[in-house]
Amino acid sequence: MSNNNLSFRIPLSVTILPTRKCNLNCAYCKIRNQNFVNELDWKRWIMYIRRLNKKIGSICFWILLGGEITTWGEDLIKFVKEISKTEIPWNFTTNGVLLTKEFLFKLRTSGLKSISVSLDSLKPREDFFENLKSQRTIQILDRLNKYGFKDLHCTITVDRTNLEELPQLIKFLTSKKTYSEITPLIFGKSPAYDYAGSHEELKDRLFTEKDKDKILKIMTEVIKMKKFDYLIHNTDYYLFHWANWGIRQDWKCGYPTSLVFDADGSARLCLHIKGKRAPKHNIKNFDYKRFLLDWYQDYEELCQGCYWNCQFEPAYIYGITKKVELVKKYFMHQVQDVES
Predict the structure, then answer these.
(1) What is the pLDDT of residue 124?
(2) Collapsing DSSP states into helix, strand and coil, what is residue 316?
(3) Which H or E run contains 14?
(4) Residues in the chain with pLDDT < 50?
(5) Angle 103-77-325 (CA atoms, 0-180°, nearest 5)?
(6) pLDDT of the residue at 3
(7) Which of 55, 83, 56, 87 is nearest to 69 (CA)?
(8) Full DSSP string of 221-278
(9) Which of 192, 195, 327, 318 is nearest to 255 (CA)?
(10) pLDDT the model gives residue 87
(11) What pLDDT, on a 0 to 100 scale, did the predictor assign at position 35?
(12) Which of 46, 57, 139 has the alpha carbon at shortest distance from 98?
């Protein structure tokens, strides 16, 4: 790709891993690392988020994953107070285990308006840690509503063990005024994929071509549920094509729809792959055009695809509309407005 074409590729969101530390050890997640060196503190994250937001005007949303950001403790309260002074749209995902009544109250009174938790099943799960976070989410949803959190958001990681439960999960979450964000269990395709477990490790849970008809049936039901005002974050297009790209996970973004930065501020090729060249770029002095040159080399060499909705859906919406405002609506759960 020529340098002239690079300038037309705009990032639509930023995902950061503010810490690699986590209080759980879920089977499908490999990013946890208690000894990751040179993690940025909350003050530097605030400074760099503000700086990059001014530098790149197309950024619609900041997504904070992990690790587990609630391990910051009181520093998370300070972070929320500072970022709430800005107009930067953002949210963080948490397993919820550390969200005590007191901690939640402090977060809310510090300016936190929305929060994202995980719920993979209403039934007991085989993996102890996955079960713990799902049970914790069930416990705290009423409290989140009581404290006045708005646009509550829940990620449902779907695999063969909970596909048929998906409509029931959506109904439960809607009854708790919470949006469902549906994503497949992502698997790593090579050693370069350092975020998720490998296909071999997860093979008993992953979909195969034999599941295609069942997936299409369930996702068609989910699409119909949206028309009856069930709170579902995903686009119809993403859900419908799950039976294709979701099984093989071979969709490729083509450019960094979402910039991703690791806990030390270094850039990543994407959420799933650290990369070889991308990490030499850092959020503290980030030059997007220079980064793109290395990003494309890593992409061509290392990427074998995924079906991660945080990358797929913004790219899809912008691709057919060329309107950043509609991407912003998507991140604020106004999906029906986007699709109409």
Answers:
(1) 87
(2) helix
(3) strand 13-16
(4) 1-7
(5) 110
(6) 38
(7) 83
(8) HHHHHHTTT--B-S-HHHHHTIIIIIHH--B--SS-SEEEE-TTSBEESSSSB--SSG
(9) 318
(10) 86
(11) 66
(12) 139
Q: 131 with 96: CB under 8 angstroms?
A: no
CA distances to 121, 164, 206 from 213, rounded to whole Å, are: 22, 12, 15
At 236, the amino acid letter reads D
Q: How many CB atoms lie within 10 A of CB 264?
A: 16
Helix (H, G, I), strand (E, B) or coil at 157: strand
Q: DSSP per residue over 280-293, as a string?
A: GSBGGG--HHHHHH
Write down the pLDDT at residue 127.
Answer: 83
**Helices 101-109, 128-146: crossing angle, 10 deg rounding:** 50
Q: State the CATH architecture for 3-339.
A: Alpha-Beta Barrel (3.20)
Type of residue at 250: D
Amino acid 5: pLDDT: 46
pLDDT for position 34: 63
User: What is the spatial distance between Cα 20 and Cα 76, in angstroms, rounded to a whole number?
Assistant: 15
Exposed, middle or buried by CB within 10 Å (0-12, 13-18, 19+), for 314? buried
Nearest 5°: the CA angle 117, 46, 108 is 40
Q: In residues, how long is the chain?
A: 340
Q: Residue 199, Cβ neighbours under 10 Å: how many?
A: 14
Give the pLDDT score at 36: 76
Q: How many Å apart are CA 20 and CA 264, to the nearest integer?
A: 9
Report the Cα 323 to chain-centroid distance in Å: 21
- Residues in contact with 227: Cβ distance below 8 Å, sequence separation at least 6, in sequence order: none
